[in-house]
């Protein structure tokens, strides 16, 4: 005869099947949504096992009725326009409906003619595919540069990082580590990603913090169409014995990431292959050190709009990088991810929505913005939709709790126009400047205090100065035009703005069209915001630089008060390529070129530069077929040295080129 314990166990094993909504985590989530009541305590008495079981059965029935009657989504966090799922079945149903409603448009942009579309609306391929405070910048007074970043105390991943003694460079799907010994630099270590079954793992970017290095990677599961982002963390305290110490994996293509306050935030876009392909995210290194499959994100951590216009999932994860105890959170939204802006408190993620007219002609674009509270376990606090597309992360900035965001939109006649919105803490519109720079598109934005500096381009390069001091009534104060356009704006001082971008010229006297034909460096006088002026210009024809499209390629040395950018140049007449780094200063608005350093090892394959001490390092990837020699790094000595009052002194008579 069975005792009470065996009887109850047998019932659980064979008879009673609790619904999935009775899981501990789900129940806790529902409890959080209920107003707390006073606790009523009953005296403890002895009950028989049968009585306990009867009470449990009754409770299970009641809870099943309660939870079974709940809607499939709830607006538990009271975010306008966002709802949270309550069960897995609801996620699958919503995803199936979204695939049916939106997959045609997404396939069109995923497989269509990028060149045609990009030219039609003036946006980049990255903006078309939802793959990947502004007054601050980067640099270091510790003798080596840091990655150029947008917001104070918020690090960004890159393909080059430095320490006082070593240089780390991501190339050929691995990170190579070099000693910072100038001409005597040598490779001392290589960090490769761990393979996942037969999948080809491709590193994207990486971070270095303390004695840890985290490499962000992408891989696709063979023959499945499923893609994942993985963060592998290595102990680099001993470069002779680098160890993999942890791994985290989430669904989708890598979009971007940030690191602040001891936390790493990873954003990806998951493109489900079918309605059962739900977003996944979790630690992926098991106790034995083998790769483990990530877990599905619980339904109550997945959100959607009331009428989702995307069949993709935006996934954001938080990983604690300071704690010895592994901790992580992941949330997902039925929607895509494109650009992000992040400060120490909030993360803003944009999702573009392109509209087709008659099935194949691009009509316009709207952008949805999601606000995430980083101090509250990735809590979504607001969402909003604005007209137009965001150019890049520098189009956004937060000040005094207000988000400022600039977009390029399409008017009713199909022409480009531009907008700047000011949104409050709930992403409600407070003020805006709309419809400026007709037939032009935004190429660069920089926010400095209560002013926005916006570069637009079609055939000339207007710099607009917009006053944001009255958040309800922002207004354009002044503008100045110049040929070409800047893609990056850098504050030099209170009165000077540096622009780096493209030199352009007419393709043909008989054709009203300009072509990008080189590198251009320009300075603007912004002391009088109503009357900005061009101060100085340097043009390098047939030159190209990664900094024209990626701000992280800029190196700032605050000790020397100078800037360094990589360049590549190809002489089509002599059929010869060369590359290196341009080092320059800005003095009283004038651009002073210290030198152009040419690399004999890397030729015209320079992608990045860095400095450690008095040496500038250049990175690229050059393979000599004759010798079989593979080169990744070259170096030159600075033409500047430091004097006793910490100011830069030129020791070589270098002409201003």
Short description:
By secondary structure, the protein is mainly beta. It is built from six helices and 42 strands.
Describe this structure in words.
With 657 residues, the protein is mainly beta. It has 6 helices and 42 strands. The chain has a 7-stranded mixed beta sheet. Residues 15-22, 24-70, 108-137, 508-513 and 641-657 have low confidence and may be disordered.
Distance between the termini: 98 Å
Order of the strands making up the biggest sheet: 1-2-14-16-15-12-11
Strand-residue proportion = over 45%
> How many strands, which pairing sense, and closed or not: the largest β-sheet?
7 strands, mixed
Oligomer: single chain
The overall average pLDDT, rounded, is 81
The total of helices stands at 6
Shape category: globular
Number of E-state strands: 42
Rg on CA atoms, Å: 28 Å
Structural class call reads mainly beta
Show unreliable segments.
15-22, 24-70, 108-137, 508-513, 641-657
Helix proportion = 10-25%
């Amino acid at each position: 005869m069975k005792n009470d314990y065996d009887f109850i166990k047998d019932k659980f094993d064979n008879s009673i099947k609790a619904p999935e909504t009775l899981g501990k985590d789900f129940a806790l989530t529902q409890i959080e949504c209920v107003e707390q009541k006073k606790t009523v305590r009953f005296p403890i008495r002895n009950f028989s096992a049968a009585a306990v079981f009867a009470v449990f059965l009754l409770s299970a029935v009641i809870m099943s009725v309660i939870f079974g009657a709940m809607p499939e989504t709830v607006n538990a966090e009271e975010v306008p326009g966002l709802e949270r799922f309550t069960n897995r079945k609801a996620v699958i149903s919503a995803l199936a409906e979204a695939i049916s409603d939106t997959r045609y448009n997404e396939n069109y942009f995923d497989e269509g003619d990028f060149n045609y579309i990009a030219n039609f609306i003036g946006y980049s391929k990255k903006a078309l595919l939802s793959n990947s405070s502004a007054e601050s910048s980067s640099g270091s007074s510790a003798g080596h540069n840091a990655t150029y970043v947008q917001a104070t105390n918020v690090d960004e991943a890159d393909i080059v990082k430095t320490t006082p003694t070593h240089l780390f460079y991501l190339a050929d799907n691995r990170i190579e580590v070099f000693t910072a010994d100038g001409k005597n630099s040598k490779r001392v270590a290589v960090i490769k990603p761990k393979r996942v079954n037969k999948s080809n793992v491709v590193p994207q970017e990486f971070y270095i913090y303390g004695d840890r290095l985290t490499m962000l990677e992408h891989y696709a599961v063979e023959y499945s169409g499923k893609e994942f982002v993985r963060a592998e963390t290595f102990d680099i305290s001993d470069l002779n014995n680098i160890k993999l110490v942890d791994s985290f994996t989430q669904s989708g293509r890598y979009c971007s990431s940030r690191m602040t306050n001891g936390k790493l935030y990873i954003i990806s876009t998951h493109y489900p292959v079918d309605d059962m392909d739900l977003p996944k995210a979790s630690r992926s290194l098991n106790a034995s050190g083998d790769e483990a499959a990530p877990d599905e994100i619980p339904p109550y951590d997945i959100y959607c709009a009331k009428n989702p216009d995307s069949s993709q999932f935006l996934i954001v994860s938080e990983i604690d990088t300071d704690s010895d105890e592994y901790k992580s959170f992941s949330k997902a939204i039925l929607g895509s991810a494109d650009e992000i802006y992040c400060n120490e408190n909030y993360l803003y993620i944009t999702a573009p929505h392109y509209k087709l007219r008659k099935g194949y002609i691009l009509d316009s674009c709207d952008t949805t913005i999601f606000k995430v509270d980083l101090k509250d376990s990735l809590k979504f606090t607001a969402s909003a939709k604005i007209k137009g597309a965001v150019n890049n992360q520098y189009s956004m900035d937060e000040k005094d709790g207000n988000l400022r965001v600039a977009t390029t939109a399409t008017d009713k006649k199909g022409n480009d126009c531009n907008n700047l919105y000011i949104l409050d803490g709930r992403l409600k519109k407070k003020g805006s400047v709309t419809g400026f720079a007709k037939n032009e598109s935004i190429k660069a934005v920089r926010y400095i205090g209560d002013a926005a500096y916006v570069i637009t381009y079609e055939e000339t390069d207007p710099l607009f100065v917009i006053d944001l001091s009255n958040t309800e009534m922002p207004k354009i104060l002044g503008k100045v035009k110049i040929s070409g356009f800047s893609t990056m704006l850098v504050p030099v001082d209170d009165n000077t703005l540096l622009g780096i971008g493209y030199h352009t010229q007419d393709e043909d006297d008989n054709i009203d069209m300009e072509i990008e034909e080189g590198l251009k460096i320009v300075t603007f006088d912004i002391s009088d915001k109503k009357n900005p002026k061009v101060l100085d210009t340097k043009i390098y024809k047939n030159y190209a630089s990664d900094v024209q499209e990626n701000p992280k390629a800029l190196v700032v040395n605050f000790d020397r008060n100078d800037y360094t950018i990589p360049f590549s140049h190809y002489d089509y007449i002599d059929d010869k390529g060369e590359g290196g780094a341009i080092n320059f200063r800005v003095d009283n608005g004038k651009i002073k070129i210290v030198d152009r350093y040419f690399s004999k090892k890397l030729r015209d394959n320079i992608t990045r530069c860095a400095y450690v001490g008095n040496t500038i390092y250049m990175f690229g990837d050059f393979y000599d077929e004759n010798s079989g020699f593979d080169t990744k790094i070259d170096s030159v000595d600075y033409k500047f040295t430091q004097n006793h009052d910490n100011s830069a002194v030129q020791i070589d008579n270098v002409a201003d080129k």
